[in-house]
């Protein structure tokens, strides 16, 4: 048996239909109101922060390898945090004594700040002065210690340039700044990007901080995101450094005789002191192999007390590698 609707039920159905029709026409019955915080205007989005973090993570890895090799000691650097905050909050995080310097940001003409916490700066200086890298009590650096640490900071600025070169930003080291001079660098309410790194050595640990003004963010964020979508390319400086490092790599070299036929009876008759006559012409060229790959044809020669190979012609190494036999016997040349 069907349900009979009363007048109240009918009025409720018509009211619901009218509300649905108004919503479909783009005029909601009640528009929600949300509070807007003007202090968050221009806040860095998550995608932008990820792009910035990728560049600074590259800087951390490069600095870890470069400075660790220079110190000849274990030195680890990792990105800890990147956040946007007013300049006065960055000043509150500075704990004197510390080493903080100004870096000019070209081609924008702006100025940023680069800080080495004394907890990690002191052990670095100690290692370079012949120590084991222990931290000492908080104090100001002597003139000699400051000169040594300045050279370390300049090296770190070079690594900043390599990491940020893809977005066209260049860091130029200016000088160490006093606390009073740092406070006048930017207005207290100006937004900055503060990037913090944790540095560790066997006997100490500390922080390295980079502070960039908001004008830099507005100029590079779009390029950072677009560069993140492109395949990574090595900069010319990085390629040159790789070539220089590869120049010191040592490869095995061998001068291999061409294929020949020998009597089995001659081989079985071999004994210490026996001279085996090879069926080769006096001036027959042999194969010069570098790292197991055929490099060219050469003649055996002597250079002072060493044996050598005089190169006659080079071949296509890639083509030779594609046609390389499974195994061959070689005669090594010292």
Automatic annotation (TrEMBL):
Keyword set, alphabetical order: Bacterial flagellum, Cell membrane, Cell projection, Chemotaxis, Cilium, Flagellar rotation, Flagellum, Membrane
Gene3D superfamilies for the chain: CheC-like, SpoA-like
CDD domains in the record: FliM
Location of this chain's protein in the cell: Bacterial flagellum basal body; Cell membrane
Alphabetized GO MF terms: cytoskeletal motor activity
Pfam families: FliM, FliMN_C
Membrane found in the keyword field: yes
GO terms (BP aspect): bacterial-type flagellum-dependent swarming motility; positive chemotaxis
Gene Ontology CC: one annotated term: plasma membrane
Membrane topology designation: Peripheral membrane protein
Residue ranges of domain Flagellar motor switch protein FliN-like C-terminal in the record: 247-315
SUPFAM superfamilies (alphabetical): CheC-like, Surface presentation of antigens (SPOA)
Role played: FliM is one of three proteins (FliG, FliN, FliM) that forms the rotor-mounted switch complex (C ring), located at the base of the basal body. This complex interacts with the CheY and CheZ chemotaxis proteins, in addition to contacting components of the motor that determine the direction of flagellar rotation.
Family the entry assigns: Belongs to the FliM family.
Name of the protein in its database record: Flagellar motor switch protein FliM
């Amino acid at each position: 048996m069907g349900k009979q609707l009363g007048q109240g039920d009918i009025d409720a159905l018509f009211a619901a239909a009218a509300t649905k029709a108004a919503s479909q026409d783009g005029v909601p019955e009640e528009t929600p109101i949300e509070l807007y915080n003007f202090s968050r205007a221009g806040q860095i989005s998550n995608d932008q922060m990820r792009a910035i973090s990728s560049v600074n993570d590259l800087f951390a890895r490069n600095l870890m390898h470069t400075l660790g090799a220079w110190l000849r000691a274990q030195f680890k650097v990792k990105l800890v945090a990147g956040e946007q905050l007013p300049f006065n909050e960055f000043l509150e995080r500075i704990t004197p004594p510390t080493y903080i310097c100004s870096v000019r940001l070209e081609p924008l003409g702006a100025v940023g700040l680069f800080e080495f916490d004394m907890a990690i700066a002191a052990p670095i200086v100690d290692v370079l002065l012949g120590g084991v890298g222990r931290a000492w009590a908080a104090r100001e650096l002597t003139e000699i210690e400051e000169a040594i640490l300045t050279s370390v900071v300049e090296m770190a600025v070079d690594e900043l340039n390599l990491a940020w070169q893809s977005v066209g930003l260049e860091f130029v080291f200016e000088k160490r700044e006093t606390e009073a001079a740092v406070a006048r660098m930017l207005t207290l309410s100006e937004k900055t990007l503060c990037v913090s790194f944790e540095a560790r050595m066997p006997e100490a640990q500390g922080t390295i901080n980079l502070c960039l003004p908001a004008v830099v963010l507005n100029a590079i964020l779009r390029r950072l995101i677009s560069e993140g979508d492109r395949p990574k390319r090595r900069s010319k400086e990085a390629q040159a450094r790789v070539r220089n490092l590869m120049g010191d790599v040592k490869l095995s070299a061998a001068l291999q005789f061409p294929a020949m036929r020998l009597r089995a009876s001659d081989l079985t008759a071999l004994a210490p002191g026996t001279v085996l006559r090879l069926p080769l012409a006096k001036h027959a060229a042999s194969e010069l192999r570098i790292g197991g790959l055929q490099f060219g044809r050469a003649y055996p020669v002597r250079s002072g007390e060493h044996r050598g190979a005089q190169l006659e012609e080079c071949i296509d190494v890639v083509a030779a590698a594609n046609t390389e036999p499974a195994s061959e016997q070689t005669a090594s040349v010292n």
